[in-house]
Design a protein that fits this description.
With 460 residues, the chain is of the alpha/beta class. The chain contains 16 helices and 14 strands. The N and C termini lie far apart (77 Å).
């Protein structure tokens, strides 16, 4: 059977066992994203305008979408200094502590170089290089996001990316929130521009008179930003992009030992992001589900973003299952951005978790600590992409180069294998590139030519 209709002011409690396959799919469905052909067409036109008009197009688009009439896109030294003065000691301390924890966790993620002789005379290496220039996109929307600055800029700095360019939408008065600027400065961002939306992605992907073209773009955004990233990444003249990211989501797995107060707070913390955010509870306790629903209603009253919650909670679900094994099976099927585990002995269930962007174990690990200051990255795959992607790491700001060095003996030994493989694939030129070198080695062996570095690669 399909899930029952639900009043807009009420969160339904659904019994998983009573749902048929279509009903279960409906219960786990995300809010619809408007990624229509019309959106892609409009974003494509916007990108073309930025490429054609450069800075003048950016100024016009910023007036149109952000209501800001700018005289310069770049944030000045005076603006950075003013931003620092606008924050109190406690706020600066909080930013610095968050930065320190994110640095601590990401410094340990550095990939190690590899150097191995796979067989005598055949040496393979893997070396690591930072991406030369990266674009960091920090949304504006309805709230400033200094935490996103930290999550993007810290690994970029640790990776050693020489050019780290940040774009964020200006406020109507042409300023940027002081916490965003201060975080950027503290994290070593090389330049900040007052630029948001799809036009920022276009500018980073192709460059303008003021905005440098980058090699890879990072950061979350709305449907327009997401569409722009997709289009820019598909263009060989554009820039690569990071992981797929959409509206925020959380799934809580809880048993009868969980606090309904905590669970409701966790659901609301994610649901307040935007109207397309989704919060789901899966529990083996009907009693807990009922208490959580009551707590959500109670806690909503005191929250400032009630208008957002009134829309996002329409996609909230409380699902009752027969046991925790089923709960984690359903959680893996949903593949949440954030998975909170509030059960007895939560670490015991960690081996069963396969698909999640970030996992929070136990009652004392609220998701906002991960958003802000625990140290792990909060840029995570959403919309089911956690089945194939993980969260942002230091490796995303680096690339690996493989190096092969082959000696004469190594080629004599391994060359015939390569020739056989090439012939299997019908690639004669591949086989010839190896065979010609083997022929030179045969001549060296018979003394018809003298062995020397110059003889390697010589045609005879």
């Amino acid at each position: 059977m399909a899930p029952p209709e639900r009043r807009r002011d009420h969160i339904s409690i659904l019994e998983w066992a009573s749902l048929d396959k279509p009903g279960r799919r409906a219960v786990l469905a995300r809010p619809h994203l408007e990624t229509s052909a019309a959106v892609m067409h409009e974003v494509s036109r916007l990108i073309a305008r930025v490429r054609a008009e450069g800075d003048s197009g950016l100024y016009a688009l910023t007036r149109r979408f952000d209501g800001a009439a700018l005289s310069s896109l770049a944030v000045t030294r005076d603006e950075f200094a003013e931003a620092r003065r606008a924050l109190g000691h406690e706020q600066i301390a909080a930013l610095e502590r968050a930065i320190a924890n994110v640095q601590c966790f990401h410094q340990l993620q550095a990939p190690r170089p590899l150097d191995v002789e796979t067989e005598p005379g055949v040496r393979c290496e893997q070396i690591v290089r930072p991406i030369a220039s990266v674009g960091l996109y920090v949304p504006g929307g309805t709230a400033p996001l200094p935490s996103t600055v930290i999550m993007l800029a810290v690994p970029a700095q640790i990776a050693g990316c020489p050019e780290r360019v940040l774009c964020t939408p200006p406020r109507a008065d042409g300023s940027v929130h002081p916490a965003v600027l201060t975080a950027a400065q503290r994290c070593g961002v090389t330049s900040v521009f007052k630029l948001g939306g799809a036009q920022a992605i276009a500018a980073l992907g192709y460059g303008t008179e003021s905005i440098p073209k980058v090699d890879k773009i990072f950061g979350p955004g709305n449907v327009w930003v997401t569409a722009a990233k997709q289009l820019v990444a598909q263009d060989s003249e554009g820039a690569a992009c990071d992981l797929p990211a959409g509206p925020s989501e959380v799934l809580v797995v809880a048993d009868e030992t969980a606090s309904a107060d905590f669970v409701a707070a966790d659901l609301l913390a994610q649901a307040e992001h935007d109207r397309l955010a989704q919060a789901i509870l899966i529990t083996n306790s009907r009693t807990l589900a009922e208490r959580v629903v009551a707590q959500v209603r109670t806690q909503c009253v005191a929250l400032s973003r009630r208008e957002v919650l009134a829309q996002s909670l329409r996609a909230c679900r409380c699902i009752v299952v027969g046991d925790l094994d089923t709960a984690f099976t359903v959680a893996n099927e949903y593949a949440p951005e954030h998975l909170i585990v509030q059960v007895r002995e939560p670490r015991r269930w960690l081996p069963q978790i396969r698909n999640a962007g970030a996992v929070f174990l136990g009652p004392w690990a609220p998701e906002p600590l991960g958003d802000y200051c625990s140290g792990a990255n909060h840029v995570l795959p959403t919309y089911g992409h956690a089945r194939a992607y993980g969260g942002l790491t230091l490796r995303d700001f680096m690339k690996t180069l493989s190096v092969q060095e082959i000696s004469r003996d190594g080629l004599r030994s391994l060359g015939p294998t390569a020739i056989v493989m090439a012939k299997l694939e019908g690639l004669d030129a591949h086989a010839s590139a190896v065979a010609r070198r083997l022929a030179v080695l045969d001549l060296e062996k018979t003394g018809e030519i003298f062995a020397s570095p110059a003889s390697e690669g010589m045609a005879v």
